[in-house]
Structure formats: C-alpha cells, structure tokens
From TrEMBL:
One of its GO terms (cellular component) is cytoplasm. It comes from the Bacteria. It catalyses: coproporphyrinogen III + 3 O2 = coproporphyrin III + 3 H2O2. The gene is hemG. This is Coproporphyrinogen III oxidase. Its main location: cytoplasm. Belongs to the protoporphyrinogen/coproporphyrinogen oxidase family. Coproporphyrinogen III oxidase subfamily. It comes from Kocuria coralli. SUPFAM superfamilies: FAD-linked reductases, C-terminal domain (SSF54373), FAD/NAD(P)-binding domain (SSF51905). One of its GO terms (biological process) is heme biosynthetic process. Residues 27-468 form the Amine oxidase domain. Its EC number is 1.3.3.15. It is found in: Cytoplasm. Pathway: Porphyrin-containing compound metabolism; protoheme biosynthesis. Its cofactor is FAD.
Amino acid sequence: MTPTPDQQESATTTRRPRSALVVGGGIAGLVAARDLAMAGLRVSLVESRPQFGGAVGSHMVGGMVLDSGAESFATRTDVVARLIEELGLADRICLPAQDGSWLYLADGPRPGGRSGVLGIPGDLDSSELRKTLGSYGRWRARQDLRRPARIGATATTVGDLVRARMGSAVVEKLVAPFTLGVYSAHPKDLDVDSVAPGLREALREKGSLSAAASSLREATRAGQNVAGLRGGMNVLTEALVKDLAARGVKLVAGYDVLALDRDPRREGWIVLQREPRVGDKTAIARGELLVMAADGSSAVRLLSGMDRELSHLQPDPSPKVALATLVVDRPGLNEAPRGTGVLVAPNAQDVRAKALTHASAKWQWIAEALPAGRHVLRLSYGRATSDGGASPELALTDEQLVTLAMRDASTLLGVRLEPGDLVDADVVRWEQALSRPSAGHPQRVADLREGVSRLPGAVAVGAWLAGTGLASVVEDTRAQVAGLLSRHGVTDGPEAQGGP
Ligand SMILES: Cc1cc2nc3c(=O)[nH]c(=O)nc-3n(C[C@H](O)[C@H](O)[C@H](O)COP(=O)(O)OP(=O)(O)OC[C@H]3O[C@@H](n4cnc5c(N)ncnc54)[C@H](O)[C@@H]3O)c2cc1C
C-alpha cells in the first residue's frame, strides 16, 4: 500500500538519512557539502557556473593567478583558520603588510586610523584624527568618552549608533568610506549587529564606542582584522573542491538549478535542470537532506516553489560591484605611497572608485612573484547612489572601466600612471555576491529560517543570511549543517569514528 504524505513525512524524520543535496557551490555550499560528507552522507553538490567557489574565485592577470573576489578573511574568530588547518593549508596563512590603509576625502588623501573596527576610531587622541575631522569634529567625537553607555544603545544601524556617540563627521569621513568599500552600503543602511557582532555588548561593558571598537580589534589575531593565504583565497576553494572529490561527493558544475521537487519514490529532494537529456528521466542530483546555498534571490525563488509563503522573504537587492585589476610597471609605487590601499569617502568628487587595494604592497607573496617595479592594483566600483539606483560606472564597458581605473589610481596614489605603464588588466563583475544587511536583518533571517524549517530536512545558508564575509559564512554554515544533522539523528559519521 502506498504511504500517505503524512506517513512519508514521518518516515523521513525518523529514519536516519543517508544522502544530501547541496544547491550552490560558493564557499557556503562547499563547506556544507564537506561537513555532510564527513558525517557519512552521500552528497551531491550542484553549481550553476562552470567553476565552484562563487565569490572566492581566481583569474589570470599579467601572467599571475590572483583572487577575482575575496582576498582575505576576518580573524575576529578562528573559524576560517580552523577550516584552513583542516585542509592542510595552515602554513599558507599570512598577514597583510602593517602599513594600514588611507582615506580619500573630499579635500584629499589622509592616513587612516587602525585602532578600531568598521572605520570607528579606537584612539580619539591621535593628531591624524584632528586633521581628518577638524577641531569641532574631533571635539564631537570625544563626547563619546563622556556620554553614558546607554546613548546609542538602542540604535539599529551603524550610522545611528556612530552618529549618536561620535557625531556626523565620524560617520561620513571615517565609517562611510569603510562600509561603502566593504559592503557597498552607507552606514545608515547597515544593521549594526549583522556587520559588527559584539560591538553593542562591548559598548555596554566598556562605556564608550571607541573603547568598544578597540577591544574588538585587540581580540583579533595579532591585532590585525584580517589574514590571507599565500596564493590567494582562491586556494581555499581549490582545496575544498579537491577534498570533496576525495570524499566521493558528486560535483556537478554548469547546471543552473531551475526548480526543486520532492522525489516521490525516495522521500527526498531532486533538482530539475534546464535541459533534461532526452530519454533521461534520472534527476542529475538528489538527496534526503537539502542545503540551499545559492545567493539570496535564487534561494528564495527556488524555496518558494515548494512553499509560497517564503516568496515574501526576498532579501534586500544585492549591491552590484565591478572590480578592475590593473598590473602596471611603475617603480614610483615601490614605496607604497598609500600603504595597503585607499578607502574613498562618498562625497569625494574627483574619483569614481569606492576603494583601491594596492595588492602588491598589501601581500608579500604577490610582491615576491613580480619583477622589480611591477605592481598589482585592485579598484572597486559600484558606489551606493543616494536613491538606491545603480552606480553609473557599472554601465561602462570593460575597456572604459580600465581607463577610468588608471585615472582614479593616479589620483588616489598620487603617482601618475601612463597608458604605457599598463601590462595587463581584467574586469570582474559581481551581481549577486554581496549582501546588504539593512536594519531589522536578524529578524528577517529568523523568519526565513523558521519558514525553511517547515520544509522537510532543509536548511538555507550563505552570506545573504549570515552576513558578508568568509568568517560569517563559514561559521554560520557549519552551525546550520550541524543542527540539521543532529535534528535528523546523524551525529556520528565515519569521520567521528576515525576517518573517511
Ligand atoms: C569583490 C568581492 C570581494 C570580497 N572580498 C572579501 C574579502 O576580502 N574577505 C571576505 O571575508 N569576504 C569578501 N567578500 C565576501 C565573500 O566573498 C562572500 O561573503 C562569500 O564568498 C559568499 O559566499 P556564499 O557561498 O554565501 O555565496 P556565493 O559566493 O555568491 O555563492 C553562491 C553560489 O550559488 C550559485 N548559484 C546561484 N543560483 C544557483 C542555481 N539556481 N543553481 C545552482 N547554483 C546556483 C552561484 O553561482 C554561486 O556560486 C567579497 C565579495 C566580493 C564580491
């Protein structure tokens, strides 16, 4: 007799699952697939692009393999370092140069402070701060030291919190260049708990925002907010894919998952692909458990095909970003005139980039691989416009964007770059890779997760839920997968018993 849907559902929840399906092969999907495979499940991972890794990818520029997206990881926790160690890459972990970055304000360049987080200054006595903020701006910032800790404690956005404690000049001149560079969003549009976890608790404990920002910074490895990998973060993707292949994970690249369905015979999930091969009735991938690791809008589209209620939980639109990487021969840059790079204030008129990374000054492994006088510069475009529209630079062709990047780099670095200096260039455009966690983001994430938990054996992971950045994504993914496994009685896979 055929079981009723209820009987099928109850069988799914009581029988220990043996297989899992992961949709999306960015860092979240790769990490999820690995943890599922280590728990002893048969895993299939489906990725729409030809390569895995999502925003942790590589490209060849000037004869060198460089990161095309993420180039570092935050060290506020050891979660990424632990993953790197598990993959046998610990000896490749490296710290960026200590020089720090600069700011480019409406009236020109300034050395940036390095004692806080998110651009929030930890040291309110520095003479640089007076030059950057002006005397009133610095006086207002120092009110942070006198105001009771409850001021700003209920603010939900970074902008409101910093403005309440330190005033507008700190928001616009120090914090906005940072958040626009990293999140493509103004501080007023960012949920404070999502982008600076622990900052409000530290404010309550330490009594001032500057002390809170310093304490978060000191808590990081070697006082540096970030670390990298020799060879670039793309080495992590490569190692994960190799590890998954060795564990027997079925890796399917180049298949855009169009829809999900329940497998009526095997009580699990199947994906429906774009071009089913004629006569091939077998789904390309299936699994009793489902980890949805696609970007936010794709994930909600796919999941709401199974439960319409989820369709109203669409994430905020992703900021679009274009990254222009330039390899130039210009010995004048040997002295790293702007340290590791420059963050641009939103009201700077003579530059269109939102940030520049002097990659060969920041990472020793890049400098060592280049001939004398050669440099790698990464400029990012896609400033948030005041009406939330698309940044006009993104409409430029690759060639036009490279020309603009050469001009912007000259202005930001204070060293004139001529067209003849350009050895090679590449433009990479990211459309769905960044999340913009606006106020109320944690509640929306909780609602979404509550909705997904109604689907049998499913969880959703990725930066759109966990927050931008490898540290947030890896930590959240591992926690979500561990929860899924334990809810389904998978607690002791072969790994736990002594190896794959
Ligand atoms: C330019 C740039 C620079 C960055 N720099 C840093 C940095 O230095 N440090 C840092 O910590 N973070 C950085 N980040 C952020 C970080 O890279 C991301 O937060 C993280 O990589 C996101 O991982 P993810 O797996 O959640 O998403 P993604 O990497 O976006 O992966 C999602 C995957 O799902 C796939 N997919 C989507 N739809 C489907 C479908 N229908 N079927 C199958 N597959 C699908 C996509 O192709 C993609 O591969 C940067 C991001 C960008 C864009």
